[in-house]
Amino acid sequence: MSSQQPRYVKMHDNDNVVIIANNGGLPAGTVLDNGIELREAIPQGHKVALTDLAAGDIVRRYNVVIGYAKTDLPKGSWLNEHRLDMPAPPELDNLPIATEKTTLDPLEGYTFEGFRNPDGSVGTRNILAISTSVQCVSGVVAHAVERIRAELLPKYPNVDNVISLEHIYGCGVAIQAPDAVIPIRTLRNIARNPNFGGRTLVVSLGCEKLQADVFFPDRFIPIKNGGFQRQDENIALVTLQDEENIGFEGMIQSIMRAAEEHLIVLNKRVRTTCPISDLVIGVQCGGSDAFSGVSANPVVGYATDLFVRAGASVMFSEVTEVRDGIAQLTARAASPEVAQQLIDQMRWYDQYLGRGSADRSANTSPGNKRGGLSNIVEKAMGSIVKSGSTPIQGVVPPGERCTTRGLNFSATPASDFVCGTLQLAAGMTMHVFTTGRGTPYSLKEAPVVKVATRSDLARRWHDLMDINAGRVVDGDATIEEMGWEMFRYMIDVASGRKQTCAESLKIYNSLALFNPAPIT
Amino acid sequence: MSSQQPRYVKMHDNDNVVIIANNGGLPAGTVLDNGIELREAIPQGHKVALTDLAAGDIVRRYNVVIGYAKTDLPKGSWLNEHRLDMPAPPELDNLPIATEKTTLDPLEGYTFEGFRNPDGSVGTRNILAISTSVQCVSGVVAHAVERIRAELLPKYPNVDNVISLEHIYGCGVAIQAPDAVIPIRTLRNIARNPNFGGRTLVVSLGCEKLQADVFFPDRFIPIKNGGFQRQDENIALVTLQDEENIGFEGMIQSIMRAAEEHLIVLNKRVRTTCPISDLVIGVQCGGSDAFSGVSANPVVGYATDLFVRAGASVMFSEVTEVRDGIAQLTARAASPEVAQQLIDQMRWYDQYLGRGSADRSANTSPGNKRGGLSNIVEKAMGSIVKSGSTPIQGVVPPGERCTTRGLNFSATPASDFVCGTLQLAAGMTMHVFTTGRGTPYSLKEAPVVKVATRSDLARRWHDLMDINAGRVVDGDATIEEMGWEMFRYMIDVASGRKQTCAESLKIYNSLALFNPAPIT
Ligand SMILES: [Ca+2]
Ligand SMILES: [Ca+2]
Ligand SMILES: [Ca+2]
Ligand SMILES: [Ca+2]
Ligand SMILES: [Ca+2]
């Protein structure tokens, strides 16, 4: 399709706007094939009015009210964030509850090659993870990881990597404050991520508030020494303040000794054929533009449906990006209980934002707006698309594990690295990340499949983007075709047959804990 | 002095407790030379009652009420956190205001060799710093730093290091929330730290909320490109989403090109003789025990007085650790205005903790208590000692720069890495850190001088502790002698004649931003 021919995308018959698809946008005077003449130049991804709007008139996209015209705007006008008033946030009562039940046929015949763990969970990678109970020790742990990579890892070829689960949690967090439970359970559950084979090593200082028996209460994960009785050897604890650690080299040696014990065990892990239902997938978007909701997110939504039909657990997230679509979500809840959990999480988040004198409108970024997303309502509609069309079977509070198969809402901030961190805590073994403006964000704890919304980005960032959903905008592929392509690619990645772009380049962002509690 | 001979420390004549100084503590039945017989074994650093206490009686240390006896406690009893009730926090009105003016003679004849910057500030190190406006880019920046260190740094021998100012700030922070100003100005002011020679490199993504003109408003630091007009070349901005960056290697090359421009300039920096008044020192304590307030902190307090007398800026910090001593601080304020600023910062912090259902008592850690500190009141009295005895000339709100010479209170959380991060933003070029339990914490942005409270720790962590203040407890040195020793050592470190232990070992903790604003 020529780049000269005017192209645009309409999401729903009832919409009174379309977005311009051409790379570089279209000049004033261009006439679309629906007869609309552009009254001004309109950038790619931005909206044009299909009808004459009077001040206060509804602007509708995705068959949803995304705003009201601020002034009179004749058809062909550019509708950007300055020309729209945002609707009020939807109330959290009188919502439709579990009214919509989309039933899709089970999808059979697909498997992947994964690392099955003693607890039944299955990893997509075989990683030695070193966690810490307090940030104080992280400078020492960074040295230990380098030494382990250089001196030990080559001896254990079945182990993919050695990583530190670095974070800035420390005694500053008011540990008794009600919300402190969130960062603590996040750290605890990340240590249990299936990609680590149940063999995470914990380095502690000794005097910190997050003592071993608080980090892992009730021998949640048996701890080898320190704090309480050794049960088995699943998790080793190295405490830097222990008397036997003489100087820096003593600390490094203690960590390396414990690491090697774990490497010996991890090296014996082998991939076996597993049903798709053993996959735990987290999806999110970041650096979004107006094509996120048109190309990449619908492609992810299609793949989400495929994985759910095949029995996998798939989480979508980002509370402030779905808040405006709460009525759609409660309607899609598999049960009234699930709907109530959705409402509870939204209410908690409303209150959390309110305490800090913020609201959901704080979500949209300048890049979102330059990319054509006028406000959070429009962004939300494009974001929810990632969840596909199946009923929501479970809700995962921030930092908790996902324990329900099928589609889950994991209630996290939209912030890319905070969301990714919480999805790892939920047990995610593969991450899908769509981006329109482009972000090189990635994780070292699980493979991250990057999906570009536009071909221009996919071309420019040729070695950073795994999948180019821009082909949908270009008319070169359908959402269905690309959804299947993504499904097959992700199975290859999960099975270790393929590495993601970010894995090849070893691009790793650090964890970012969600800590709503105060710091002392 | 033999380890058999019972030793103890009394802080003030009016105290009705002493702490046991012997390594390993003392057994029941030991008779001190003041005639007190221990009724039970008492660990090192823990308190013993000098008088018979009835339930409710005052327990006094540092001539301050640190608590009330929970039950009847005969003399010779162990007074630990389970046997004391904590006093109520002092009110913030009716405080003594600027009533106490300690005048110390100026100290002349001392200089150091520092790197003077165009803006008049002076660094103790010559570091190329790479900051980021959003966490998304940090995985790429980590690669760039490795490449710059390996390929460029060897060509510029006058540059000490290349570092990334990594952090987890991102679009998630509700940028319009009132408290979001704190992490933003922290990042801005860290980029201006004198150790970076006014030549910080900023890597941005492009679509983030913290755009260049928000990060550096009013061309606060002139930005080379992107966002607004180039003024000069002090700060270069590399934007990963810029069209010219093709793929990962394109991003790396852009960062390396900008880095080399800066390295050329930084390599020309030379040390010149500077007055001590060009030093900006931050002091804090972490992993404290009962000896922190007996040995290391008084030694630091003595050195603080020496530096203040010589004209330097010295900051003490840690709001929750001085909150119980507010009356001492307002009395020491150099003016009613400074006293009011102290009160304002304490009030803001009280409210901040209250919003999260926490209070100052959340500060003390299990290690503090095992080390003999029963509660935050006792810890506070030992913490304030670091500030020496001179009037408080200035108050630095969190994230702001210190602009006043002499003793300053920089209002930060007590959390070690959060405090260190904020002191760097305040312009700190040398950090002093006392520890009793022991922490390997350090920074890469400025040298960190570590001071052990006990000889046992200094021996065990022989290559991690710069100064052993335990010699004061052992009776081998006076506070005055050790204060002078520290003063001279710090001048050597500031001048680059000596490296700290942590610099030699390259132990670096990451920055930890103080973000009281919510995350979307
Ligand atoms: Ca998103
Ligand atoms: Ca985002
Ligand atoms: Ca996101
Ligand atoms: Ca402290
Ligand atoms: Ca501290």
From TrEMBL, chains A, B:
InterPro entries tied to this protein: GarD-like, GD_AH_C, GD_AH_second, SAF, SAF_UxaA/GarD, UxaA_altronate/galactarate_dh
One Pfam family this sequence matches: SAF
SMART domains attached to this UniProt entry: SAF
Domain of life per record: Bacteria
EC number in record: 4.2.1.42
Signal peptide extent: none
Family listed: Belongs to the UxaA family.
Designated name of the protein: Galactarate dehydratase
